[in-house]
Design goal:
two-stranded antiparallel ribbon; two-stranded antiparallel sheet
Length: 433
């Protein structure tokens, strides 16, 4: 027990080894859908083989979970984050037209900056500079964007020349399979079934076999090499304004995803210091997240972040880094099951994207809609993400509007010097780029 306490911060007074193991498995089951989603999403980019992305995703999750276990000593799972992967693929690469090497470079730089910010304790200053309601809006906007991508990938939403988008043929094919999967996964989630998302993906995949949509590729194999995507950085554009915007966006989203997860889950689990109101080992947890992001970029995947699904393991009783260690071990096992995960069609992962979108819009309930100097920028941020097909444009629009509206309204005290600087930079971006 003394060794477990030293390694993972395990306390036999608050938990048991059995409870921590079950908590780890529970969290893994709720977040392992990323192994099916990431290869399909990154596979849309030329030069990023699905097998290599699967291996990189699993390795990044392993590094993140083990870092959280040994450094943070908290019961959280880490993996390449939803929303951040969408920004990588659909905004930076497909939208802005940059290569995936450029995007990996941005993620790597973000990770380095994250480490420096953690060491120097300046993260809190940046967090305090961003208006609270705008923070809530970013999470909600990303939720809508992810759900839209899921519907698009499944063919539920299709291109329409008259109205830009329209409803696809939901009576057959991938769209029908996705709707079936959404019903199955939704019912499982509503009934609080552990691993509802993973079970939903697998069930939908099986249903897709007789429908001719799922192409079974096998069960086990040695992990694919990550050589095609390992350390593929592009340094010639690191001093461009676009790189600055992309790095900042990665940094911003990761920062608030991680902070929101740590604060929310720890508070719910009564892990907050009652005297100071602070979360124990918060700085260590941030460092684990930063290290995982940096190494994950070198491995060839998008930003690695702390998963909100960790709440499922905490609810199971996980309280220490031992839970995170178990999650990491589960990801090690999955390295040898890549054919099974790569057999999963987009229609089977679409329901998960839609439900994750639902989970991510929850912060919208915290926005002060009665104060229009707050709600108008927040709404612009939310709605621009799916309509402009860009998380970056949503964030930039929200920040610019927040500063302009509050200046005109005379609310100068609400705007921090950092916000003035950021808004100016973003306006210049739209003018000159």
């Amino acid at each position: 027990m003394e060794m477990l306490k030293k390694l993972f911060g395990f306390d036999p007074k608050t938990s048991t080894v059995r409870t921590e193991v079950l908590a780890g498995i529970t969290t893994f089951l709720t977040m392992s859908y990323i192994l099916a989603v990431n290869p399909g999403m990154f596979g849309l980019l030329d030069g990023m083989p699905a097998g290599a992305v699967f291996t990189a995703t699993a390795l990044a999750a392993i590094v993140g979970c083990l870092a959280m276990a040994f450094i943070g000593k908290l019961p959280f799972g880490l993996a390449p984050g939803m929303g951040l992967n969408a920004f990588f693929v659909f905004t930076v690469c497909m939208g802005m037209g940059y290569t995936w090497q450029f995007a990996l470079t941005a993620v790597f730089i973000e990770g380095i900056l994250f480490i420096l910010m953690t060491i120097t304790n300046i993260r809190e200053a940046i967090v305090n500079a961003i208006p609270q309601n705008l923070r809530y809006a970013i999470g909600a906007g990303i939720g809508l964007f992810i759900a839209f991508i899921g519907m698009q990938n499944a063919g539920i939403i299709v291109n329409n020349d008259a109205t830009l988008v329209g409803l696809g043929d939901i009576t057959k094919g991938s769209a029908l399979l996705a709707i079936i999967g959404l019903v199955i996964t939704g019912v499982l989630y509503a009934k609080n079934v552990r691993g509802a998302m993973l079970i939903g993906i697998l069930a939908t995949t099986l249903i897709g076999i007789p429908m001719g949509i799922t192409e079974f590729q096998g069960v086990m194999s040695m992990p694919d090499t990550i050589a095609p995507i390992f350390c593929k950085f592009e340094w010639d554009k690191i001093f461009t304004l676009d790189m600055l915007v992309v790095v900042f966006t990665f940094l911003f989203i990761d920062m608030f995803d991680t902070m929101g997860t740590l604060i929310g889950v720890c508070t719910k689990a009564d892990m907050v210091d009652k005297k100071t109101g602070r979360i124990p080992r918060l700085k260590d947890a941030f460092m684990a997240d930063a290290i995982a992001t940096t190494i994950g970029a070198a491995l060839g995947t998008s930003t690695t972040t702390t998963y909100v699904e960790s709440a499922s393991g905490v609810a199971q009783g996980g309280r220490s880094g031992l839970t995170a260690f178990v999650i990491g071990c589960c990801f090690i096992i999955t390295l040898f099951f890549s054919p099974l995960f790569l057999s999963i069609p987009a229609a089977a992962t679409a329901p998960v994207l839609i439900l994750v979108g639902l989970l991510m819009i929850e912060p919208i309930t915290k926005i002060d809609l009665g104060d229009f100097s707050e709600s108008i920028p927040a709404f612009a941020c939310i709605i621009m993400m799916p309509l402009a097909y860009s998380i970056s444009d949503g964030i930039l629009t929200g920040m610019i509007l927040y500063v302009i509206i509050n200046i005109v309204c005379g609310n100068f005290k609400k705007i921090t010097p950092t916000m003035y600087i950021l808004a100016t930079l973003f306006i210049l971006k739209y003018i000159f780029i």
